[in-house]
């Protein structure tokens, strides 16, 4: 959504801060906000002018015509304001059809003035530029300003001048006010442009001898420009329309949406309603709401919302649990229904999103049953079969009534089932599985022969068919009537390998001689080649760092498919339009600021370039060319017969709904000739008329389908075309968004342009106009397929369309990764892991999400327990591990490991090399005694050998007792590291049998020699065995296995690595040079010279 209304206070704050004008703007920042929590004494302290000036008070909640509604208190003192508010604050009020509570008020200074000092000014955006409206009589009784006001259109990329304002707008204004008003209006317009306003109205604007006063103001800004205007906007709160509360759940989903590349929307209409929706797709979500309202469910419709743009499993889980949480707060006497619907996805992995929903259903299964919720599911798209399977499975395992349907069922049929208007099939027809379409039994790698003769009426276009026509000298170039042919070549901007592979698979299926993608452009890497499949063969496509090189080396390219982000789409598109070879550009990104889009449109019109998008999936011409992810995966391409041309062309705003049209048209006619999704923004690069007129002029098209939408007036141009005879082919049309007129407050639907600003922009008005003009208009979207079939059958009956003979579709090899995801193949893994999983939304250590690891405050020792032992160890065990790491961290520069690290560092080696040099010295003689000590002491203890017997046995065999002895420390000079560990172990361990045994051995060895103490390695070794055996987390066999496989030496390696790194950094910091050992510290013992 782009244009969002802001509060009057926010709008005035922007104006006072940033307007640049010579006019004296008065009462800057003189406003005070009042809510139920307001302390008027404190308010007066913060705004002293409240005590000295006469005041105006009014609600600031997006309410129009407040004066006529008696909602403005005028010429009051502060006490009078308080009295006035007593009868209004927190009172329920009707404004039009909306009933809401007045809870937010604005107090401003009262401005005494004459009627002739009031003016009206408004600026609003349109496709061709920004209109400035001015009327010399402002105020409450201004009336129909559209009819009265003077208008001045400032074209895209043009500036407003004071001379133009005076000549065209201020003709009825007194001479002494013209200069002030002209300066203010120009400053206001510049502010409007700089801060990305889309609508700005001031009524009245008062001009007195003291200056300019902005009394009442209403404004909308382009929320998509946040990344450009954040510094000036700050953090904006967008208030809900009057009559609808702002719910924290809406804010939560909006926050998820802001952090995601996907689209997540939620609007609560009636939280007590029994009909809830969770719909995928901006267009589909509107269609489902329409159908619910058409079937009488408007009063029970609880929410509007959508999720789209390939959200992750975690994101759909968060979205679904929010819906389920809201649903299960209050029971309904008739139970509740949840409609999980959607059109056929183009690129969203349905199984992945459904797994998130299934998780939420499992989490809420108790409340779902308690509230008697029945769930209806209908979806199609990539991997939808697996998604439907898991959804059906959760219904069986939980006992929740879940009815699951795929593409064989009309998109909105589940609404009738949910509301009791149609029966629920006991066994829905089984949809064909992806595997049935894609696995090729033939070993041939050649391009398949065409699977169907072209439509008999198809225009046999040659290679140059898609070039733009040359215009007469001085006139702008004429846009191409044929956008795509079988020879069309494209460049893809962005590293979208999946989309490109989908295009190549489509090309192969359509029997194209060559791939439709010539190259890719990706500015973030150097020039290189990227591997793709062409049928069975592997091919390489060039990837260029800059557009200029790609264009120069591929002059045959005439189409750009831009996957640039919303931040870079404008610049990359403007750059592309410099190259005359380009005649069509598809812009996929959603959320491009409208001002930038309008500049793109203006440049494209000047260059004769057709823009598809922004905010689109693209378009498709069966048998010829498809844009990116249009049409979904190959199973849908083949199921909807998009590999060969039909006779029906369509145009839609929605990408998901365009794929649904592919499905409907393929089931009711001979198929699609061409289809374009122009995009959901308010100003799409090309409009319905552009494409409908192209289809009218294309011989292969015999009937046209247009899926219109609430918002805008473009459909009326189609009405005029039909009435005038310019459009003679049958047009089947339906405008979605009919539910909007039934809502008591304004609802912004998923598409940015799906909002009616006047009665003529409603879907109901446009459907009526289209029907009156002669288009075939169904009663609802439910009947769209029936009307399309009726018109098609009539054309076949008249001989206008002669259906061609169908031939079994060709096959394309399935990608290994996709076949595996569908469960069609299995392969042994190259290696297995059981400690960590990074594939999901959140990193998991031994089954514990990383957020839980931090919440539990288990520390490094606990984390090590998860990754090494796959256990959540007791806190004392985690603490012991950390103590072991601390006491083994370093033992000075003289030991062999540190020495090696230092020598290596001084030789100029890097950190990793130096650390490795030190680690390689660890073994039985240095640092590796932990495992050996643990094994020796455990074996002796477990065999029942007395400590003396153990010592004597080792002496007799000539073996050292590992972990016994120290070069410096002795019984008289104890090692404090051992003492610290011993105190902790004795205090916290449940049992220390092996440690006690080792201490008895120490008594025997130190009696012979005082330095034969249990050293730190030996102590850690035996104490760790006690820990593993007695903490309750391991069996005896598991404990012994960890000792056997060398886990304990890992403690020394990990701890000592900290010291080695410290020595490396120390040497670098001290800038020590190459180390050479001194001669006097080397004993040279050479053999005497011997002569033979």
From TrEMBL:
<keyword id="KW-0067">ATP-binding</keyword>
<dbReference type="InterPro" id="IPR016143">
    <property type="entry name" value="Citrate_synth-like_sm_a-sub"/>
</dbReference>
<dbReference type="InterPro" id="IPR002020">
    <property type="entry name" value="Citrate_synthase"/>
</dbReference>
<dbReference type="InterPro" id="IPR003781">
    <property type="entry name" value="CoA-bd"/>
</dbReference>
<comment type="function">
    <text>Catalyzes the cleavage of citrate into oxaloacetate and acetyl-CoA, the latter serving as common substrate in multiple biochemical reactions in protein, carbohydrate and lipid metabolism.</text>
</comment>
<comment type="similarity">
    <text>In the C-terminal section; belongs to the succinate/malate CoA ligase alpha subunit family.</text>
</comment>
<dbReference type="Pfam" id="PF00549">
    <property type="entry name" value="Ligase_CoA"/>
</dbReference>
<keyword id="KW-0443">Lipid metabolism</keyword>
<dbReference type="GO" id="GO:0003878">
    <property type="term" value="F:ATP citrate synthase activity"/>
</dbReference>
<keyword id="KW-0444">Lipid biosynthesis</keyword>
<dbReference type="InterPro" id="IPR032263">
    <property type="entry name" value="Citrate-bd"/>
</dbReference>
<dbReference type="GO" id="GO:0005524">
    <property type="term" value="F:ATP binding"/>
</dbReference>
<dbReference type="InterPro" id="IPR056749">
    <property type="entry name" value="Citrate_synth_N"/>
</dbReference>
<dbReference type="Pfam" id="PF24948">
    <property type="entry name" value="Citrate_synth_N"/>
</dbReference>
<dbReference type="InterPro" id="IPR005811">
    <property type="entry name" value="SUCC_ACL_C"/>
</dbReference>
<keyword id="KW-0547">Nucleotide-binding</keyword>
<dbReference type="GO" id="GO:0006633">
    <property type="term" value="P:fatty acid biosynthetic process"/>
</dbReference>
<keyword id="KW-0597">Phosphoprotein</keyword>
<keyword id="KW-0963">Cytoplasm</keyword>
<dbReference type="InterPro" id="IPR036969">
    <property type="entry name" value="Citrate_synthase_sf"/>
</dbReference>
<dbReference type="Pfam" id="PF00285">
    <property type="entry name" value="Citrate_synt"/>
</dbReference>
<feature type="domain" description="CoA-binding">
    <location>
        <begin position="483"/>
        <end position="592"/>
    </location>
</feature>
<feature type="region of interest" description="Disordered">
    <location>
        <begin position="448"/>
        <end position="473"/>
    </location>
</feature>
<keyword id="KW-0832">Ubl conjugation</keyword>
<feature type="active site" description="Tele-phosphohistidine intermediate">
    <location>
        <position position="751"/>
    </location>
</feature>
<dbReference type="GO" id="GO:0006085">
    <property type="term" value="P:acetyl-CoA biosynthetic process"/>
</dbReference>
<dbReference type="GO" id="GO:0046872">
    <property type="term" value="F:metal ion binding"/>
</dbReference>
<dbReference type="InterPro" id="IPR036291">
    <property type="entry name" value="NAD(P)-bd_dom_sf"/>
</dbReference>
<dbReference type="Pfam" id="PF16114">
    <property type="entry name" value="Citrate_bind"/>
</dbReference>
<dbReference type="GO" id="GO:0006101">
    <property type="term" value="P:citrate metabolic process"/>
</dbReference>
<keyword id="KW-1017">Isopeptide bond</keyword>
<dbReference type="InterPro" id="IPR016102">
    <property type="entry name" value="Succinyl-CoA_synth-like"/>
</dbReference>
<keyword id="KW-0007">Acetylation</keyword>
<keyword id="KW-0460">Magnesium</keyword>
<dbReference type="InterPro" id="IPR033847">
    <property type="entry name" value="Citrt_syn/SCS-alpha_CS"/>
</dbReference>
<comment type="subunit">
    <text>Homotetramer.</text>
</comment>
<keyword id="KW-0479">Metal-binding</keyword>
<comment type="similarity">
    <text>In the N-terminal section; belongs to the succinate/malate CoA ligase beta subunit family.</text>
</comment>
<dbReference type="GO" id="GO:0005829">
    <property type="term" value="C:cytosol"/>
</dbReference>
<protein>
    <recommendedName>
        <fullName>ATP-citrate synthase</fullName>
        <ecNumber>2.3.3.8</ecNumber>
    </recommendedName>
</protein>
<keyword id="KW-0808">Transferase</keyword>
<dbReference type="InterPro" id="IPR014608">
    <property type="entry name" value="ATP-citrate_synthase"/>
</dbReference>
């Amino acid at each position: 959504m782009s244009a969002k209304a802001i509060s009057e206070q926010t709008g005035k704050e922007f104006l006072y801060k940033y307007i640049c004008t010579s006019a004296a703007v008065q009462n800057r920042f003189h406003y005070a906000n009042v809510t139920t929590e307001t302390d008027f004494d404190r308010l007066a302290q913060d705004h002293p002018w409240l005590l000295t000036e006469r005041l105006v008070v009014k609600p600031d909640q997006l309410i129009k015509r407040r004066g006529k509604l008696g909602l403005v208190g005028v010429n009051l003192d502060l006490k009078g304001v308080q009295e006035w508010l007593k009868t209004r604050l927190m009172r329920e009020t009707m404004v039009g059809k909306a009933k809401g509570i007045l809870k937010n008020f604005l107090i401003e200074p009262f401005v005494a003035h004459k009627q002739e000092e009031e003016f009206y000014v408004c600026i609003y955006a349109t496709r061709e530029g920004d209109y400035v409206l001015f009327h010399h009589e402002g105020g409450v009784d201004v009336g129909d300003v559209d009819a009265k006001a003077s208008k001045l259109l400032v074209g895209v990329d043009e500036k407003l001048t004071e001379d133009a304002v005076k000549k065209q707008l201020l003709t009825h204004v007194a001479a002494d006010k013209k200069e002030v008003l002209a300066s203010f209006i120009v400053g206001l317009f510049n502010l409007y442009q700089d801060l990305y306003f889309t609508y700005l109205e001031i009524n009245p604007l008062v001009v007195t001898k003291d200056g300019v006063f902005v009394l009442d103001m209403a404004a909308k800004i382009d929320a998509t420009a946040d990344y450009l205007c954040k510094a000036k906007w700050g953090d904006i709160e967008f208030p809900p329309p009057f009559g609808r509360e702002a719910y924290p759940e809406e804010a939560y989903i909006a926050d998820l949406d802001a952090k995601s590349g996907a689209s997540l929307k939620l609007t609560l209409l009636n939280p007590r309603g029994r009909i809830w929706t969770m719909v995928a797709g901006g267009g589909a979500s509107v269609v489902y709401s329409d159908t619910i309202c058409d079937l009488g469910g408007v009063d029970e419709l609880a929410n509007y919302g959508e999720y789209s743009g390939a959200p992750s499993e975690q994101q759909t889980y968060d979205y679904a649990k929010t819906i389920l949480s809201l649903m299960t707060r209050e029971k309904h006497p008739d139970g509740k229904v949840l409609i999980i619907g959607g059109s056929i996805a183009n690129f969203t992995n349905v199984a992945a999103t459904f797994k998130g929903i299934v998780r939420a259903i499992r989490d809420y299964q108790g409340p779902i049953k308690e509230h008697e919720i029945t769930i209806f599911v209908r979806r199609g798209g990539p991997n939808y079969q697996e998604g439907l399977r898991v959804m059906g499975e959760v219904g069986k395992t939980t006992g929740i009534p879940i009815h699951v349907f795929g593409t064989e069922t009309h998109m909105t049929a589940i609404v009738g089932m949910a509301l009791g208007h149609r029966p629920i099939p006991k066994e829905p027809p089984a949809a064909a599985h992806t595997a049935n379409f894609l696995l090729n039994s033939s070993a041939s790698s050649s391009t398949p022969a065409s699977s169907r003769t072209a439509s008999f009426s198809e225009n046999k276009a040659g290679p140059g068919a898609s070039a733009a026509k040359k215009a007469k000298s001085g006139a702008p170039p004429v846009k191409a009537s044929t956008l795509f042919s079988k020879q069309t070549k494209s460049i893809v901007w962005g590293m979208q390998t999946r989309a490109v592979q989908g295009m190549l698979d489509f090309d192969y299926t359509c029997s194209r001689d060559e791939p439709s993608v010539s190259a890719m452009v990706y500015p973030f890497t150097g020039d290189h080649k990227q591997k793709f499949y062409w049928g069975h063969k592997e091919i390489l496509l060039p990837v260029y760092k800059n557009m200029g090189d790609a264009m120069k080396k591929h002059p045959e390219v005439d189409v750009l498919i831009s996957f640039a982000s919303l931040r870079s789409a404008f610049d990359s598109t403007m750059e592309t339009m410099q190259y005359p070879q380009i005649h069509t550009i598809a812009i996929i990104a959603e959320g491009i600021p409208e001002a930038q889009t309008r500049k793109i449109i203006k440049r494209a019109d000047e260059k004769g370039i057709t823009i598809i998008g922004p905010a689109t999936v693209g378009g498709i011409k069966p048998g010829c060319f498809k844009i990116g992810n249009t049409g979904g995966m190959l199973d849908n391409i083949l199921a909807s017969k998009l590999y060969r041309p039909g006779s029906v062309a369509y145009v839609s705003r929605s990408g998901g709904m365009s794929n649904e049209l592919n499905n409907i048209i393929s089931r009711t006619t001979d198929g699609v000739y061409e289809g374009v999704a122009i995009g959901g923004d308010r100003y799409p690069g090309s409009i319905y008329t552009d494409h409908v007129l192209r289809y009218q002029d294309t011989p292969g098209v015999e009937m046209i389908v247009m899926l219109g939408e609430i918002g805008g007036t473009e459909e009326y141009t189609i009405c005029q075309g039909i009435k005038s005879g310019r459009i003679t082919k049958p047009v089947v049309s339906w405008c979605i968004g009919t539910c909007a007129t039934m809502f008591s407050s304004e609802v912004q639907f998923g598409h940015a342009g799906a909002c009616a600003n006047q009665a003529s922009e409603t879907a109901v008005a446009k459907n009526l106009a289209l029907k009156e003009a002669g288009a075939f208009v169904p009663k609802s979207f439910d009947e769209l397929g029936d009307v399309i079939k009726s018109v098609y059958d009539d054309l076949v009956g008249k001989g206008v369309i002669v259906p061609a003979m169908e031939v079994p579709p060709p096959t394309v090899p399935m990608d290994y990764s996709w076949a595996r995801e569908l469960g069609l193949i299995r392969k042994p893994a190259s290696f297995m892991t059981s400690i960590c999983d990074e594939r999901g939304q959140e990193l998991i250590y031994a089954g514990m999400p990383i957020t839980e690891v931090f919440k539990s405050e288990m520390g490094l020792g606990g984390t090590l327990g998860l990754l090494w032992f796959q256990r959540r160890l007791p806190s004392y065990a985690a603490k012991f591990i950390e103590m072991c790491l601390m006491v083994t961290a370093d033992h000075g520069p003289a030991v062999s490991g540190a020495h090696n690290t230092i020598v290596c560092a001084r030789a100029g080696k890097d950190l990793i090399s130096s650390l490795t040099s030190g680690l390689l010295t660890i073994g039985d003689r240095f640092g590796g005694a932990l495992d050996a000590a643990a094994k020796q002491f455990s074996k002796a203890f477990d065999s029942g050998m007395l400590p003396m017997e153990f010592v004597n046995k080792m002496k007799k065999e000539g073996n050292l007792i590992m972990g016994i002895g120290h070069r410096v420390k002795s019984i008289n000079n104890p090692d404090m590291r051992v003492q610290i560990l011993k105190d902790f172990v004795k205090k916290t361990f449940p049992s220390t049998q092996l440690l006690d045994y080792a201490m008895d051995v120490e008594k025997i060895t130190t009696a012979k020699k005082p330095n034969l103490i249990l050293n730190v390695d030996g102590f850690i070794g035996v104490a760790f065995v006690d820990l593993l055996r007695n903490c309750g987390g391991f069996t005896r066999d598991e404990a012994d296995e960890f000792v056997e496989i060398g886990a304990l030496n890992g403690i020394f390696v990990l701890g000592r690595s900290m010291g080695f790194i410290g020595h490396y950094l120390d040497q670098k910091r001290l800038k020590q040079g190459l180390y050479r050992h001194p001669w006097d510290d080397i004993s040279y013992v050479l053999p005497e010279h011997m002569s033979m």
